[in-house]
Amino acid sequence: METVEAELEEGLISHQPILSSLNQTGERIIGQLSAPDSSLLEEKLEGLNHRWRSVHREVRERQRRLAGGDPALAELARRSDELALWLEQAECAARSLSVVGMATDKNLKELKALAEEMDAQNERLIWLNKNGPHILASKSVSLQERDQHMTRLRAINMNWSNVTRDLLDKVGEVEACLQGQGQFQDRMNRLTDWVVLTHQSLCMRTPGSLSPSEHQVLEMSLRERKRDLEELLSRSIELQRQQLLLPQEKIKVEQLAADWKALDVAVKEVAQHPVSSWTHQVAQQQLSVSAVPSAVQMASLMSGRTSGTTPPAAPTWWPPPT
């Protein structure tokens, strides 16, 4: 009889990693399928997990009945089963929730909720580690039973450490990803606002109405913003290559590039009839450096379809027209 129980126990232990692997692979595939295929696979996976839990429960009930009615050993087995099953589910949940590069606030909330639940489950682990060795030291527990339960307890502790580390890593990854997305979008929005406002202000000026000093201030502003634009375009191309550029971000980048081109045209139009030959020379030098980014960058971005900088301020390089 003990041989049969040992074989059942070994079968559960050896097949549990296989089930975990199937769950992880299945979750990944489900996320890539469209309905109704994803629903069908999800239903089959849930059926497999339901059957596994039923077999697992039957084996544990059988072991408790054969334990001779030892309530302490039965309680140890029950708590071990519950925590082992929860750890398996938590591991699968953490892996399915972490979407590197495409994280969302929902991912972060779900991961943090799982971390909070893990804090609550820690009480179960404390109970097992505190009471397990004392229960198994009883003379009524056979050597084979003691070895089985101690092996299981060690496996639970090891799995707990792995799941805890993985969960904290996933939370950190998602937080970093969301922070990077926020910084990228914030820089793009700020630069877009500056370009649009500057373009609108230039459109209100007549050709040749900018003074030499206004041209110089404009030139400095354009140099600074052009560096921002090139960094944003380079980052966009990199994200697009990695298939991590969100559709709404792609649209915003394309619109920003178009707005910059419109600004460049407006600058040239305002400088068409400079007030003096010296102003004309300054304007030509300035326009040569304020051109839009290279065609190679733009072609890469349109066809594929870093560090923070000082937030752009509203243009103050000329007085409002009177």
From TrEMBL:
- Organism listed in the record: Anguilla anguilla
Q: Where is this region: Disordered?
A: 303-322
What InterPro entries does the entry give?
Spectrin/alpha-actinin, Spectrin_repeat
* Name of the featured protein: Dystrophin
Compositionally skewed regions (Pro residues) per UniProt: 312-322
